[in-house]
Design goal:
Layout lengths: L16 E6 L2 E2 L9 E2 L3 E6 L8 E3 L22 E3 L42
Antiparallel strand pairs: 1-4, 2-3, 5-6
């Protein structure tokens, strides 16, 4: 016997166990209309969820900026963050990691569930 579950097998921690019921039958027996049946045995299966990291989609591989041209979007589509086995994304960081120059500024639009801050010293 094998057991397999999907990406969120514990329903975010709400259902961490399964009960497996085992019964053996002998079709050539004399009881129960010709079927001898074993007593019921059970196994409690603990499902241990593996915490997968969130995934990003819609992040542009390249973007261009023209000097004195004003701010440009870093992605032409909406960036989406998903996490199949977690209900709450607690934070995200976007940073200039190479080629940063004093005066570079990252900015984003705040929403009701996402706050935005920028530290020009760390460029985060």
């Amino acid at each position: 016997m094998t057991f397999n579950a999907g990406e969120n097998p514990t329903d975010f921690g709400a259902d961490p166990t399964r009960t497996i019921t085992w019964v053996a039958q002998d079709p050539s027996g004399t009881a129960n209309g010709g079927r001898d049946t074993s007593p019921v045995s059970t196994t409690t299966l603990s499902v241990i969820n593996v915490n997968d990291p969130p995934t990003l989609t819609g992040v542009a591989a390249n973007a261009s900026f023209r000097e004195e041209g004003g701010a440009v979007p870093l992605s032409s589509t909406s960036i989406t963050v998903t996490d199949a086995d977690d209900l709450d994304l607690t934070s995200a960081t976007v940073s200039v990691t190479a080629g940063g120059f004093a005066g570079d500024v990252l900015s984003a639009t705040s929403t009701t569930s996402i706050s935005v801050s920028y530290d020009s010293t760390s460029e985060r």
